[in-house]
Write a structure and sequence with these properties.
alpha/beta; five-stranded parallel β-sheet; 24 strands
Length: 434
């Protein structure tokens, strides 16, 4: 007689980022009374990163450990495997992975690809010499680097060299670049209360964007408001400015200008996880997994994809796909879990449809801007609303209370200037947020 275990539908989710973890959480809710479904979540990291809070983790407004949630306490029935994905054999329906020197294989009936994105380095020569900002390791490295520039600047007697050390250039004026520039402005201003020999004129932040306006996907009115807000705080915005190449300590513009800087952060677009390129599966020109409107692969009916690594078509808008934003990834995860439940029950999956209610940009210094159904909310209230929405999306009350405590402390005290050196991180493809 065939065993009960052999009859189980095996669902394997690759990636414990914003998308993959929420698929697992929703699947548990939908199939909590079913014993014929076995869900396994595979990730190199044993935590789930709350990506919208990454900016505040970099500035120290939030403790780094508090923006990550250990995976196992979030899941009751789902199996979690901490291992590095190495290969997917779609013909055999087998996932290969490595844990240290040990190799493992995991069979599946339904596979969910949620490996996230990676910085898109092909746009600008030398981009890899800049700091990235996508993972928790990137946030730690950025904070450590900024503090290192302040420490070195206190010893530098030559004015021009000191100002070069304290010049921060963010390449890319999309949502990530804007939020990062805003939070870094707040961070460095707070640090000056500790580094008393550093004057306000010694520190500068430059945001470079090739397009005519910041955050092209937002209403031009919002982009203009961001520019005015940044100008009032001393952040220099340079739109219609093309970066020709990046060096470790300088950004070269197409105009021939050279901008010396102690800190350069590259935030000019996302590419799919590099592992996707090794998959024998339909991909679009950008390397993303091509899916139908139900998020099922167009070449493999037992494979699904969502988040940064998926090209999910928008119904009624030929050629357009959903953007790689956290709010979309969350909705995609809920819908994909429901579709998996429908397929297990022998029903057809439903097309994913989501109309964004709004887009928000955190600008630092207790300011934000939100577009809600065409209504623009700005300033302190928008900042409070942004924090409230994302606080409620944190999956555990324990983490919510820790974050609230961090926010409260940050309102009262200046930024912590303790410089903790991060351990060396083994290189390799990683699943990331969204």
């Amino acid at each position: 007689m065939e065993s009960a275990a052999a009859k189980k539908t095996k669902i394997v989710i690759l990636g414990a980022g914003f998308a993959g973890t929420n698929v697992a959480i929703e699947l548990e809710r939908l199939a909590k009374r079913r014993d014929d479904v076995e869900v396994t979540l595979v990730s190199r990291d044993n935590f789930y990163l709350m990506t919208p809070l990454l900016f505040e983790a970099a500035s120290g407004a939030v403790e780094v450990r508090h923006v990550v949630n250990p995976i196992r306490p979030l899941l009751a029935k789902t199996k979690f495997v901490r291992a590095e994905l190495t290969h997917v054999d779609f013909a055999r329906r087998v996932v290969s992975m490595r844990d240290g020197s040990d190799e493992h294989e995991l069979a599946y009936d339904q596979l969910v690809i949620a490996l996230g994105g990676a910085p898109r380095y092909d746009r600008v020569p030398g981009a890899r010499s800049a700091l990235a900002f996508k993972t928790i390791e990137d946030a730690i490295a950025l904070r450590t680097h900024v503090l290192d520039m302040f420490e070195r600047a206190t010893l530098e007697c030559e004015l021009s060299k000191r100002r070069d050390l304290l010049r921060f250039v963010v390449v890319g004026g999309g949502l990530v670049g804007v939020e990062l520039a805003g939070e870094m402005s707040h961070f460095v201003e707070s640090l000056r209360k500790t580094y008393k020999t550093i004057g306000v004129e010694d520190v500068s932040i430059i945001l470079v964007e090739a397009a005519p306006k910041l955050v092209p996907e937002l209403d031009p009115v919002i982009g203009a408001y961001i520019e005015r807000t940044f100008a009032a705080r001393g952040i220099r915005v340079r739109t219609e400015t093309i970066v020709q190449r990046i060096e470790r300590d300088a950004v070269h513009l197409e105009s021939g200008e050279r901008i010396s800087a102690g800190t350069i952060v590259y935030a000019a677009g996302l590419a799919p996880n590099p592992l996707i390129a090794t998959f024998s599966i339909d991909r679009d020109a950008r390397g993303r997994v091509v899916t139908d409107q139900a998020m099922r692969s167009t070449s493999h009916e037992d494979v699904w994809a969502l988040g940064d690594n998926a090209a999910i078509p928008i119904p009624g808008e030929p050629g357009r796909t959903y953007p790689p934003l956290a709010q979309h990834a969350h909705r995609e995860a809920m819908a994909l879990a429901r579709n998996l439940a429908r397929v297990i029950e022998g029903r057809e999956p439903e097309p994913f449809t989501y109309h964004s209610l709004g887009t928000a940009a955190l600008l630092g210094s207790q300011r934000a801007v939100i577009n809600i159904a065409g209504v623009h909310v700005r300033g302190f209230f928008a900042w409070w609303l942004w924090r409230t929405v994302y606080m409620l999306r944190i999956p555990s009350w324990e983490r919510r209370l820790r974050i609230i405590a961090d926010w409260t402390v940050a309102l009262i005290f200046p930024a912590d200037s303790a410089q903790l050196r991060p351990p060396a991180i083994e290189p390799g493809p990683r699943e990331t947020a969204h």
